[in-house]
Design goal:
With 409 residues, the chain is α+β, with helices and mostly antiparallel strands. The protein has 14 helices and ten strands.
Amino acid sequence: MSKPLTLFILILTVVLVLRLFIFYSTKSQYKDGESISFNSRVLSEPKTYRSYQSFWLELPNTDRVFVKTEIYPEYYFQDKVYLSGSLHFKLLSDKTRILSMDYPKISFVKTSFPQEAGLAVVKPIRQKIITVFDKALPKDLSGLMLGIVFGIKQNLSKDFLDDLKTAGVMHVIAASGMNVTITAGFIFYLFSSFFKRQLAVFLSILGVLFYAFLAGFEASIIRASIMGIIAFSSQILGKQQYSFYALFLTGFLMLFAAPKYLFDIGFQLSFSATLGILYIPLLFKRWQSVYLDSFLTTISAQIATLPILLANFGTYSLWSIVCNTLVLWTVPFLMILGGIAALASFILLPIASFLLYLCLPLLLFFVEIVSFFAKLKGNIVFQAFPWQFSLAYYLLLASFLLFYLRRND
């Protein structure tokens, strides 16, 4: 990296730190016992206990609030809700003070404009795809396929949703930045083995746009799509560092424009997963092949996002890493085949049905693995995942990558 470029990155970093400091030091503060009503999204996978469930939400001032509510109705990650209740400060065992709401009034809310307008266009298309998937696959497998490809959870049974949560793979069916990153990375590595780099990148961009469209223009998907498109477009120039610069600039612009994204799980997942896919596979450059690259794309995203997943997704199973390793390699294949099948639904139904039949072995494998690990004992409930552990994890990972890449430069 040249000195002028290093200086430029340092200046942008300082500017961003100042922007974040001013934003978070001047934002409004809440008082203990203050009544509040607001819209928000569920930021973590709810944890279910015998008589209640709990999860995190974002307040209007971007602070997080810990919500405790009745066990029914059940809520899921990324559900949009309206709350009304009183805020209280709670002191945790580690002396950390958090905001909490106990048993507030909660109702589900519809998406707002412009997302509502976007969904109005997408809804009949999505409904057509759901119908085709339901006809081609058994109900539970169709629900799993729709969940993996488009984040549509309503077709999944409660028992299987509980299994996904217990096994630690609930994030697979949540439309998030990780889905976009895995899709783009998989398409790129797959087609780069058969076509020129520029064409592979172009096909990756088309895949990202198609997925964002069918996922219903979720905010997290849009952010991840922009990030993925810029990062992978920079690879047309043929040098890895350009991808990093593009990703850094994208992250800088997003955080400068909306500092609240710093603690947004969608932003964190898409940024870290994209960075992981760009660099972690370099550790295995000697053994590159189309099959290994596809596998490494999934594993790299998992390694890069592990602390974020641990901190935000409910009950953690001691078998989670093993279960994720066994099933995540199927996700890119299912997403690609499912995406093509969705497109074929409007062109030639037999092709769509055939592609979905090809997914059956992978779906059955996925279900059996998840069901097996969900029955094993060894679940740990994380009341909190210290940020120090996450920081130490990423510092160690970055140090190892820098050491390896410099030694082999």
